[in-house]
Design a protein that fits this description.
Length: about 190
């Protein structure tokens, strides 16, 4: 007698739970391609159509995949030059930079939400301040994210060694699977 249960999955069955996906966003084309890839491959129209109605306040909606878009603003840096005193910006300069960063982040996430709406996918957004590498990992753990999707800028070995790579750090430090998505050279927005 053959075992027919292996490899059989019933979509929408009681054992199937929602998948929490986080896409790390910045202003780069690579992060928007990562979102595009997630929307077209993990939130396909067939999957979205079979999911139950999702209300952001409805905690009983356990069959709906959840998408979170996160953007981390880096704090305003303080500069120290060798042989000179440290240069500290004034409070008004810091406030102006923070306001500009917030406006840019809001506009960028609005564009990302528009992409989600076109695919009929509801998403939550999150704007934070700190080191993007660490914040993405920390928030993913706090929100119990099942998968982090992040774009790859394709930095060379030398640039990556000096600047560090957010995607490289996240793949090595996140407590959940990480999908690094490289934008094809022929992709058009």
């Amino acid at each position: 007698m053959a075992d027919t249960s292996a490899g059989t999955a019933v979509s929408g069955g009681p054992a199937e739970e929602k998948m929490r996906v986080m896409v790390a966003m910045d202003e780069s084309d690579e992060s928007f391609y990562a979102l595009h890839w997630v929307l077209h491959n993990l939130f396909s129209p067939a999957a979205v159509a079979t999911q139950t109605h999702y209300d952001a306040d409805d905690s009983n909606s356990n069959t709906m995949n959840m998408l979170t878009l996160i953007h981390v603003m880096e704090p305003f840096p303080h500069y120290v030059f060798p042989g000179m005193q440290a240069v500290f910006p004034t409070t008004s300069v810091i406030q102006a930079v923070n306001k500009a960063q917030e406006e840019t982040a809001t506009a960028m996430l609005t564009q990302a939400l528009h992409m989600c709406a076109q695919r009929m996918v509801k998403a939550k957004t999150c704007i934070l301040e700190g080191d993007p590498k660490e914040m993405i990992c920390d928030v993913a753990e706090q929100m119990q994210i099942d998968l982090i999707a992040i774009g790859s800028r394709g930095l060379g070995k030398i640039k990556r060694a000096f600047m560090g790579s957010v995607s490289d750090y996240v793949t090595h430090h996140a407590k959940c699977p990480v999908l690094v998505i490289k934008q094809p050279s022929d992709f058009q927005k």
